[in-house]
Amino acid sequence: MIFVLGATGKVGRALVPALLDAGAAVRALTRDPAKARIDPRAEVVQGDLDTADLPALLDGADRVFVLTQGHSTERETAVAQAAAHAGVTHLVKLSTTGVYFGQTDPITRAHAEAEQAIREAGPAWTILRPGAFMDNRFAWLGSIRDENAVYVPEGDPASALVHVRDIAAVATLALTTSGHEGATYELTGGEALTTAQQVAILADAIGRPVEFVEEPETAARERMVRRFGWPAEAVDGFFALKRESAEREHVVFDTVERVLGRPPLTFAKWARENAAAFTYHYGG
Ligand SMILES: NC(=O)c1ccc[n+]([C@@H]2O[C@H](COP(=O)([O-])OP(=O)(O)OC[C@H]3O[C@@H](n4cnc5c(N)ncnc54)[C@H](OP(=O)(O)O)[C@@H]3O)[C@@H](O)[C@H]2O)c1
C-alpha cells in the first residue's frame, strides 16, 4: 500500500488517481475528510502532521509520497524516521529545482534539509524536484474573471512551467516500478514561456483578449495580501524565492521525457483544460 501525504493538494490530486489506475492500493491523508473529495477507490485517513500518530498512519504502508506544506524540515524528518521504523521500503519526496540550483531562500533551504533527512532515514528514496507549476497560474483567476486582466510583478522571468500531471506521472513510476531508487529528478515543462506569452496562450484558450499589466513589486505585494490574504511573512518568502529563481526559471530539463518516454504536457494544453474556470463571472 502507498501512503500519500498532500493527497488533496495540486500534485496529490493528480497522483492519487494515477496510482490507483496503475493498480496500487492507496491510503490518502487529509486533515478534513469531509471536504477532501478524494478518489473513492482510495482509503482516506484523517490526520494533521503536526499532531498525528505517525506509526498508526504508516501501519501497513510499503511506500510513502512525502509532501508537506509550510516547508517544515521537522515534519518531513519525523515522517521519514517513522516510516523507517514502520518498515516502509521507499520514500518519494517532492522537493524543488531550487535545491539543484543551490538557492539559499528559506523555502529551498527547508527542502534541501528535508531531502537530506529522507536520504539518511534508511528506506530507498527518490527525490522529485519540480520547477514552477502551471497550476500557479490559477492565481490569475480572480483578476481575469473580475477585470479581464493579469497583473505580474515587473521583470517576471520566462518560466519552463511544469504540468502537475507530469509530476504525478513520474511519482507514480517511482512508487510503482523499480529502477528509480537513489534517483533525483529535476522536472520542468518542455519550453520556457514569458508571462506575456502565457497570458496570450490563456487568452486564446478562453477565446477573448486578456490585458497584461506589469506592476512594481510593492504593488504586487499589496495585491497578494489584499486578494489572497497571504501573511506578510509568506509574501516575503515568496519574493525571496522568486529573486533567486528568476535567473533559472527558463531552464528546461529533459527528465520528464526521459522518464515517461513522451514529451511534457504543454501550457497550451493546461490552458484548454482550465479555460472554463477562467471564463466564469466575467461580464465585460
Ligand atoms: N507551486 C510550485 O510552483 C512549486 C514548485 C516546486 C515545488 N513546490 C513544492 O510543492 C509543495 C506544495 O505542493 P502542492 O502545491 O501540491 O501543495 P498544496 O496544493 O498547497 O497542498 C498542500 C497539501 O498539504 C496538506 N497539508 C497541509 N498542511 C497539512 C498538515 N498540517 N497536515 C497534513 N497535511 C497537510 C493539504 O491537505 P489537507 O488540506 O487536505 O489536509 C494539501 O493536500 C511544497 O513543498 C512546494 O515547495 C511547489
Automatic annotation (TrEMBL):
Residues 6-175 form the NAD(P)-binding domain. InterPro entries: Ergot_Alk_Oxidoreductase, NAD(P)-bd_dom, NAD(P)-bd_dom_sf. It holds the Pfam family NAD_binding_10. This is Uncharacterized conserved protein YbjT, contains NAD(P)-binding and DUF2867 domains. It comes from Amycolatopsis pretoriensis.
